Amino acid sequence: MKHGKVSSRILSLTAIAVIGAGLAACGGGASSSTGSGANSATTAKGPIKIWYSNNESEVKWGKDMVASWNAAHPDQPIDAQEIPAGKSSEEVIGAAITAGNAPCLVFNTSPVSVPQFQKQGGLVPLDSFPDGAQYIKDRTGDLADQYKSSDGKMYQLPWKSNPVVLFYNKDIFAKAGLDPANPKLATQSQFLDTARTLVKSGAVANAVWPSTASDFFQSWFDFYPFYAANTQGSQLVKDGKATFNSDQGKQVATMFQTLYKENLASKEVYKGDSFADGKAAMSLAGPWAIASYKGKVNWGEVPIPAAATQDKSYTFSDAKNVAMYSACKNQGTAWDVLKFATSKEQDGKLLSQTGQMPMRKDLTTAYADYFTQNPAYKNFADQAARTVEVPNLNNAVQVWQTFRDAWSKSVIFGNQSIDDAFNGASDKINQLAAQK
Predict the structure, then answer these.
(1) What's the Rg (C-alpha) of the chain?
(2) Mapped to the 3 state alphabet, what secondary structure does 111-150 carry?
(3) What whole-number distance in Å separates Cα of residue 25 and Cα of residue 27?
(4) Count of CB atoms within 10 A of residue 238's CB?
(5) What is the β-pairing status of strands 280-285 and 206-208?
(6) What is the pTM of this model?
(7) Are the C-beta atoms of 117 and 396 separated by less than 8 Å?
(8) Are β-strands 165-169 and 357-358 bridged in parallel, bridged antiparallel, or unpaired?
């Protein structure tokens, strides 16, 4: 179970130290964009710098978008580059904020890092533009509410998501005597029974192979999608309180514990993509994976199973967003570029070039022809309307690391009961969530 370019797209624990180092020298979230200076900055026009992901398909989209803008706005050119190399893109961004030389826009901002960047004084609230709040609402709809910060402002524009689903290998299913056209994965009990059949048949050594690494973000690709499905879209923390220490959360934990206890999933960390390599029969991934599986796996996909059959499935969004950074001098141009880059035309190009889902409330209708011509992506477009994001918390990384440590102890390695591990993690996370 491999997530595309995880290591370059998330915030490492080391980055917290980098970010923290700048707090004494920097003010609070909007401190760099208040007062008369802010008014002039938000209307100033001129050259800007932007960064985009180093993902090959996104680089192509970024270059094309920049060329289109520059051809029409020679007096407000964009200077664009890939995010500089580093341990993680967010660590690079955090260091740039501290140094005061962040670009105007980064088209690869992880939601989990936004509260820290805001705390650094590194972000511009997009609501500060007269049409900011309305533009985000009109484009994204109600899903945008998940991305509001604790002060009620929007420091990120919801851009694109990779809703996580359950992929399965049709050939391995057939080898195990299962019907690939009816994989029996509608509920979590069916998922477990199917996993047992796959391994017992000898068709594959591992029914599924989620990463057992201790990185905080790994829970986004085992626990969180199943928890979202079980709860119809609950976040890990809501209203400052942990939600996972519940029947729904423990049910997911028990299911995964069973996978490990019955040797249906390996406790080893696989170096590579176990699904693409035929070492596992199932995998959790988003539409980014379709291109990487092409020619390697005869795959099918189903929504993440919940404990009981549900009409509408929910899952983890795996979103990447766009933020504007307070070092930007020509924020008027940056805002115009942000709207241009997330227009219906540019979102359509992003979809066709990367297979990732623009976070638009009209996604399925705006690009109906694309989904008709590319039916493999149609279910992802439907799923994109029902996704859950990581909670917007100042200590988000520590919160997820606390949860991951409890999960590893109890679910993967069985060194602690699920009840004890979840009780302890819940108490600690409540304390972290209360910190400003």
Answers:
(1) 22
(2) HHHHHHHHHCCCECCHHHCCCHHHHHHHHHHHHHHHHCCC
(3) 7
(4) 12
(5) parallel
(6) 0.90
(7) no
(8) unpaired
DSSP 270-312: PSS-TTTTTSEEEEEE-THHHHHHTTT--EEEEPPPBSS--SS
CA distance 303 to 149: 29
* Angle of CA points 12, 268, 416, to nearest 5°: 80
Q: How far is CA 434 from CA 14, 402, 431, in A?
A: 22, 15, 5
Q: How far apart are CA 198 and CA 221, in angstroms?
A: 21
In angstroms, the first-to-last Cα distance of the chain is 35
pLDDT tens by residue, 293-319? 999 999 999 999 999 988 899 999 999
| pLDDT band at 16; cut points 50, 70, 90 | very low
Q: For residues 163 and 221, what is the distance between their CA atoms, to the nearest angstrom? A: 11
Sequence-ordered list of residues with C-beta below 8 angstroms from that of 230, at least 6 positions apart, any chain: 188, 248, 249, 251, 252, 306, 307
Are 286 and 162 a contacting pair, CB within 8 Å? yes
Q: What is residue 14's predicted lDDT score, i.e. its pLDDT?
A: 37
